[in-house]
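Hey, can you fold this one?
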Amino acid sequence: MRDHIPVVVQGRRRRAGRAGLAGLLWGAAELTVTVGVVVLLLVVHQVWWTNRQALAGAHEQVRELEREWTGPPALPALPPPANDPSPDPSPEPGSVPDPDAGPSRAPSPSDEGAPSPARKPPPQESAYGVLRIPRLGVVVPIAQGVDKRAVLDKGYAGHYAGSGQPGAEGNFALAGHRNTHGEPFRHINRLRAGDELIVDVRGKRYTYVVGRTLPETTERDTGVIAPVPRSVVKPEYGYSEPGAYITLTTCTPEYTSKYRLVVWGVLTS
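Sure. Predicted structure:
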């Protein structure tokens, strides 16, 4: 009988070892599944939910701007009485005129139909315009600044600080997400020469036409948003003459932020 005791004990140890290993493997499998589910939920939230949320907010912002622009105009001020003793509103000699009033001159024939660009930048991070890309079916608010949380993650197109204003001489440069958060610039790689880029600002419309595209450049290629846009990394891409330009920038390849894709347009009306 004593010869059989070690055999019995050894078998029990083996079974216990197998049970412990099975439990360990089962726990690892459960942990892997849990981590996979969490990652999947994060991906769904980032790729699907943020898109829906940002798109809904961006479309509501567009509607709000359009309501503001098309709302009833303010009532005109009543004319003063004939015997109103108030002084002539023209500035006295040596006084400083209102800087926003512009130069005092009679309009010239060349002014007819000319665009009236904004005189100064809008408040930081506030939506003030709408970008329309008919070929892609994109309608997106434009806000001042390119801060991710305050502007881009809302599904807006962000206006680079220091770049030109809509309809004005210079380069009106915009950034937008290509993936997630509304991804308004996801398909700008599909734009071709001649496609329209329409910018509406407080009832005024500026139409640009796509001229050139830079498929890929580094994130530090600041030349693409210069007043006369031209890549400093790939100088064969861009323009060499002053004009009224628009620039769209986004990340490339998709789902990365390694490089930048650039589309340029020129003002036509």
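Residues 81 and 87 are 13 Å apart (CA to CA). Let me know if you want another pass with a different chain boundary.
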